[in-house]
Fold Kef-type K+ transport system membrane component KefB.
Amino acid sequence: MSDLLLHAGHVAAVLAAVLLAAHLGRRAARAARQPEVVGEILAGILVVPAVLAVGGTTGLAGVLPAGVVGPLKVLGQIGLVLFLVGVAHELRHGRSGLGARAVGWVTAGSFVPALLAGLAMAAWVLLAAGPDVRGSAPAPALVLMVAVALSVTAVPVLARILEDRRMVDSPTGKLAMAAAVVTDSAAWLLLVVAVGISGGVLVSLILLAVGVAVTVVGRILLRGKAPTAIAERFPKATGVGVAVLALLAAFQFEHWGLTAVFGAFVVGLAVPGGPWAGVVRPIMRTGRLLVPVFFVVAGMGVANAPRAAVPWAAILIALVLAVAGKIGGGYLGARLGGQDRRTALTVGVLLNTRGLTEIVVLQAGYSAGLLSVQLFLALVVMALVTTAMTGPLLSLIERRARRNAAVPRQLVPDLPGGTP
């Protein structure tokens, strides 16, 4: 009994340390005028390498023994699943209030060029990169995985940036969010296909059909008067029930060969809007609290991987293609959709935000064996850098707009009689 209590105490202590590291990471990010998620991801991923650097393998084994790592992995998965239920719900019920032409062009610009950039990166990995970067994944799965990785926009991080900059209700903010929602929905579906290819295409298609059926039937049942009344009257108890269903679905789909992400999305998409939003929000907040544990587990996987040289070429290629695909594609799409240059550039910069969503996608691909540790590291760096770029680039656009607005007044000569 004492050993059990000691073990539970060890897990609780590590969990508290992880949450404290995440808190400090968020504060550091705010001080650096960066999205909080950048500091949180860095803090989580660097916990294990920091312990390893200070105490070596012996110190790491003492802080994170096998008996503690197992519960941490479960907690990280639980946090991820609960958080993604909220993400899926927001994707399903987000509304832009904008014209279909503008949203359509920006969405196409955000997705298609980024997807092509991902295909170009995958071609480099297959044809020119070394075996350490290539890994051993089937070529079709690898190509699709890399294409998805460069196509993602982090909807939760984007929403936070828009809120911090008071752009939520602006036409530019709405346009970027609408395009991001559609793009991410397609990217998540392609991720499931990529993971499923390695386990068998036919099985994956069957499971996708099962997921769609569960989503449709679930929405029909939950929109009934009785379930809606229960959700309004007992939101906490209903939230617990939805969370349990999401966890069961996630781990079941993972057991069948797909990623747990798919199960979380099935439940999140099945939950209706309206009063059900009050049920989903606490689920998402709880998951958000535990997501840093997921980052620590990801960092442990990287730290335990075979040592290799830093993949500078992969990092540089990923950054160039990612920025070109999102900022360039978003700008082009917005211009074709009738937006002015400043709006188009702002939309492109916003859509270049990857953050947490990208890390989740990459971890899913890494866990499924689709990404080598070197390619995983290169894409993680790309995700962090592109997210960190968003704030400074937006500030630069704003400064240029203010400067350009002031120039005409300074250049107009005074007319005779003192009349400007």
About this structure: Residues 414-420 have pLDDT under 50 and may be disordered. Residues 99-283+306-400 form one domain. Residues 373-411 form the longest helix (39 residues). The two ends are 87 Å apart (CA to CA).
